[in-house]
Amino acid sequence: MNRRAPDQPTAPKQETSLRTVRLFAGASEAAGCDAIEVRLGRDVSAAEVLQVIARVHPELSALLPTCRLVADQTYMAADSIIAPEAELALIPPVSGG
Amino acid sequence: MPTDASEPMIDVQLVENAIDLNGLWDPIADPNCGAQLVFVGRTRRATEKAAQVLLTANLSYEAFRPMAIKELQDLLYEASQKWPLRKLIGIHRIGEVQVGEASIAIALASPHRAACMEAMPWIMDQLKQRVPIWKQERFEDGAEEWVHP
């Protein structure tokens, strides 16, 4: 019943890659650059990408809750899985017109 | 390949210079359209905010270009599916736009006026929600701010 399960062998470390995320407008101003690089695992969701950005770039945290993630020029839903080769961009609230 | 005559004509441009407003009428001329409507958005000088009046010197627009063009094309196409619009042109100026100058023009043509007049506010509302273009306000006192509604 309360016996401790034998230790599981540790899962192989998840493959990660360095991905570029383009920045615009207030986000680019806050970060002081037009693009950032973040290390992402395979099959991450859009929400997870935003979490990683928030952790690595605290200067963006004020704007992040209202930003949308774009992959290959398409808005991603929070649970969308990001394709490994997709071009990423962070889109702050838009104000054209 | 000839375009299907039942398909609407859609033209989207991002431009760096003054928008040719007079040049919008001919391209939306269509013998089957009895209505044409052009909306123009311009840089406004005075904005009332929290009981004070802010004076704008100019606006500067930035775009994520390829996606802005794609989103504007998509939303004009969607408008043509929701209303019987035959000609749709969307032009947005990028870079500095001085007070009084046009930053956006939308030109529409439809057989009857209701389609143009109903579609225009929808198009502008959609544009302000999804087309990745941002404006930076530059005030007369030198302050600058990105507008992120």
From TrEMBL, chain A:
Molecular function in Gene Ontology: nucleotide binding
InterPro entries: Beta-grasp_dom_sf, MOCS2A, Mopterin_synth/thiamin_S_b, ThiS/MoaD-like
GO biological process: Mo-molybdopterin cofactor biosynthetic process
Family in the record: Belongs to the MoaD family.
Keywords noted in UniProt: Nucleotide-binding
Name of the protein this chain belongs to: Molybdopterin synthase sulfur carrier subunit
UniProt cross-references to Pfam families, sorted A to Z: ThiS (PF02597)
Entry GO CC: molybdopterin adenylyltransferase complex
SUPFAM superfamilies named among the record's database cross-references: MoaD/ThiS (SSF54285)
Automatic annotation (TrEMBL), chain B:
Enzyme class, broadest EC rank: transferase
Record key words, sorted: Molybdenum cofactor biosynthesis, Transferase
SUPFAM superfamilies xrefs: Molybdopterin synthase subunit MoaE (SSF54690)
InterPro entries from the UniProt entry: MoaE_sf, Mopterin_biosynth_MoaE
Pfam families membership: MoaE (PF02391)
Catalytic activity: 2 [molybdopterin-synthase sulfur-carrier protein]-C-terminal-Gly-aminoethanethioate + cyclic pyranopterin phosphate + H2O = molybdopterin + 2 [molybdopterin-synthase sulfur-carrier protein]-C-terminal Gly-Gly + 2 H(+)
Keyword Protein biosynthesis set for record: no
Biological process annotations from GO: Mo-molybdopterin cofactor biosynthetic process
EC number(s) stated in the UniProt entry for this protein: 2.8.1.12
Assembly and interaction partners: Heterotetramer of 2 MoaD subunits and 2 MoaE subunits. Also stable as homodimer. The enzyme changes between these two forms during catalysis.
Sequence similarity: Belongs to the MoaE family.
Name of the protein this chain belongs to: Molybdopterin synthase catalytic subunit
Primary gene name: moaE
